[in-house]
């Protein structure tokens, strides 16, 4: 592909025959909200009871740079995104675009945890969640049929 761009560019040809308006609209749709990304990172860091210094050390960046990321004044590399995902237990979509809606209700945090849960532990997570929900919203016991 690089060869195609180099060859076509040298020959004065446009290898991507899209007009400038379409390209601008596509780029606008792909723009990221760095302040929102930084806020999501900070929220998850504090949720995990992690200091800025601890997260910065795990990601391999300085605490000052992490503060800039959390404030939305600086961006970060794909390599750092991968480290953020691993360390904060979040998907890249959740970091970049925020919570997704599930059946009209936001369950992103729970879904994120369940998606990252290993298969062998998924059943336990389901049982724990079920027990928790039942204990906080008891259902009337259905009388058992007598033998």
Automatic annotation (TrEMBL):
Residues that span the membrane, as ranges: none
InterPro entries reported for this sequence: Cro/C1-type_HTH, Lambda_DNA-bd_dom_sf
Entries under Pfam families matching the protein: HTH_3
SUPFAM superfamilies: lambda repressor-like DNA-binding domains (SSF47413)
Domain HTH cro/C1-type: 41-95
Stored CDD domains: HTH_XRE
Record protein name field: Transcriptional regulator
